[in-house]
Amino acid sequence: MSTESTIRDRIDDAATTVGSSWPIHSFVTANPLAGFEDRPFGEAVEQSRALLGGRGYPSAETFEAALKRGRIDRERLETELAEAGYEDDPETLLDLLADATDARAANVNDADATATDAGTDDPDAATDHVDRVLTKWLSAFLDEGIAHWSMPNREAGFYTAFRGMAPHDGEIPEEGVVADLPDTPIETIETVLQSVPTHRWDAIFAEQLAALPGWTGFIKQRAADEGVWQSAAPISLEGYLAARLALLDAVGADVEPSSADAGVNPADELARAFLRAWEATYRTALVETVAEESRSMNDRENGSAAGDGTADRPDAQLVFCIDTRSEIIRRHVEAAGDYETHGYAGFFGIPMEYRGYDADVAVDSCPPIVEPQHHVVDLPADHDTRARHDRRSSVRAVADEVVETLEANAATAYGYVETAGSGYGLSLAARTLIPGRVRDLFDAAAGAVPDAHEFCEPLIHNGDATTDVTTDASDLPVGLTTAEQVEYAVDAFELMGWERFGRLVVFTGHASETTNNPYDASLDCGACAGNPGGPNARVLAKICNDDAVRTELRDRGYEIPDDTVFLAGQHNTTTDEVELYDGDVPESHADDLDRLRADLAAARENAAAERAEAMGVDDSPAIRETERRAADWAETRPEWGLAGNAGFVIGPRELTSDVDLDGRAFLHSYDWSTDPDGEALEAIFTGPLVVTQWINAQYYFSTVDNAVHGSGSKITQNPVGNVGVHQGNGGDLMTGLPLQSLLAADDEPRHQPLRLSTVVHAPVERVTDVLSDHEKLTELLDNDWLSLTVVDPTRNHRAFHYEEKLKWLPRSTAAEAPRKEPAAPAVADD
User: In a 10 Å sphere around its CB, with 0-12 CB exposed, 13-18 middle and 19+ buried, how is residue 420 labelled?
Assistant: First the structure.
């Protein structure tokens, strides 16, 4: 018999095919097929369909719409189709693809019906019953602060709490192991599976963990995170699996793994040909743009004399997140004046855990692939403003608490509604009919209460902690040492290739503004784990203004002029307003600041107009429309988020500054000439590139099969426990993006489901060196989860397209050369 540790390891291995998912209040975009990334894309699609279900390619209708709108180059498509062995015209093949998809769906339905009719009992009904009971208890146990009456004994862990409650649940038959549940989950697993050969256990584990992939992915991430809620109510995969197996045993369900597999879909090769042509059409245009601008940039540099770093200084430099939404506002900021914009991961390189002044708990404010290294808190610096804030906030908090108590208490709720009903009715009507005006009222009221950043400073100096800070429940060191601060500043300047500094340098985080939106965190900064990026921007600005840090930076070769002032800001991606946190700006820079504010306002008008047009709004004032969407509690599309993302450009801003990329490209600043060892490029590849591939994959799969990989319509979603949403009144957690984030209408996708096309401006040998040191990156490329093209400025700005195994082909001969993917094998029976 296997040992407990061996069984746990086998369970962990079985769970790798289920992607991790984060709580909805800290939404993190991730590839739902992350566990299959070690396989070629086509093979991964087939194998995941056998285990999780769902399509892996866009529908025939989606390809047809793209072809009609000129998004797929016909000549390229014909080449791809011929390479795949198809001779008919694209329209005929699209009809065949649609018929094959319909036939496959019909076969699956017939197989399900046959399986149901084969026995006297309905196995699906038994499993559905188990899912219903299990999700009921998971919802109660995993609640993160929403429930007023919490499930008893949560601190003892899920299995123990379930074991104590199961005898009192009338939906659980007192049969099998449930009648006398063992003390530990491993014992329960062994008891239920005692008649099954141990070599079959892995397949059973995998199938049962994939039965409710949303809950499994959430449990998997929560256990790995070991955060506050995991400490308060611990859960493990073995505890969850034991409860599931015990319930299956109680209803007499067969736990033997299914011998059926999804099989090779003959339509997949045809779909892949259409997809490759669509991706190549987009990629070709992007690569040609970068290559042409690279040559132009070289000509301009050769025609200008080198300066001392202060000549031709821009009026200001603004650093935005690499987020695709930044591409739009950056264009309009640059058009408004003599401004220079840069792209940098939105956590600004500070891997921190952050607690705001009014916050009850700290949040991770860095990408999920990075572990927080510092605990940063906001501490009051202006005590008079703080007092005014506290007085008004405390009154509002008490009022909110009273209302919440009256609404939630069974003894008072009816009387409260009866008394306050007319007022609530007026409030609801106002929010529905005139949301813009309601927003104005709230803004006016909020203006009377100072924001925390107006009187607080982030505590960044290690050793300055007060009693209030040291009592925080965090094991991380408070603040940063001077040496650490210097390194984070150097990292930022190196990654962006900076050699000159303006009088004002603005690190601009971003956040969204929406109302009544469970998915609001999905619109915030992904690099900050679904949180606003303003706090990170404030930390880096404070670091760069520190005298001791600037002295060290000069010793490291960064001559920052004495008149350079760093400040932070935050871009509201819903309304395109950029708020500046200007508390550290001296009077000597007042004119610079006034000019910047005025130009940011102008940029906002133009960016908002562009966004409003993309939303299908033609006749309303753009800013007013974006503000209405932010305030309207019935608005299902407050903004598009990262819908449309398809490309990632790593290089100087000059490569894209004169081009409208339609908000579809991530942009990371990088200057190969200031990075002789390739360390900055390596940091970009192992950090931002990985995260953007996650984002792109989630948007892709949520679009091609929203029922399996997305979360359906917002209209029928039901938030549960501040951890996720159900469709309807129960079932699995829906972990992907809602339909309204992806479709402009029921039959009109806003997001074009393409795998990420990355274009890098650097010597091809340098890129090869970076890839050779990172097997995971080459694995993603070799398996076609994304593409990579290098525009090499040392080789006459020629483009080289990555093929496989660290081999490149010049684009002029490869021309995105069709590469036939191997046919996906059927899933083997264990």
Answer: middle
DSSP for 271-339, please give it.
HHHHHHHHHHHHHHHHHHHHHHHHHHHHHHHHTS----SSTT--SEEEEEES-HHHHHHHHHHHHHSSE
Amino acid at 525: C
Whether residue 331 sits in one domain with residue 246? no
pLDDT at 410 over 60: no
Q: How far apart are CA 71 and CA 752, in angstroms?
A: 10
pTM: 0.91
Question: Per-residue pLDDT tens for 165-200?
Answer: 999 999 999 999 999 999 999 999 999 999 999 999
Q: What is residue 20's DSSP assignment?
A: P
34 in a domain, yes or no? yes
In a domain, 340, yes or no: yes
Domain range for 426: 322-643
Q: Give every CB contact of residue 239 below 8 A, 6+ residues apart in sequence.
A: 157, 158, 159, 162, 185
pLDDT confidence band for 823 (50 / 70 / 90): very low
Rounded Cα distance between 698 and 28, Å, is 10
DSSP state of 565: E
Shared-domain flag, residues 228 and 369: no
Taking residue 641's Cβ as centre, other Cβ atoms within 10 Å add up to 27
Q: What is the DSSP string of 413-468?
A: HHHHHHHHHHHHHHHHHHHHH-HHHHHHHHHHHHHTS--HHHHEEE--BTT---HH
Supply φ then ψ for residue 756, to 5 degrees: -65, 130
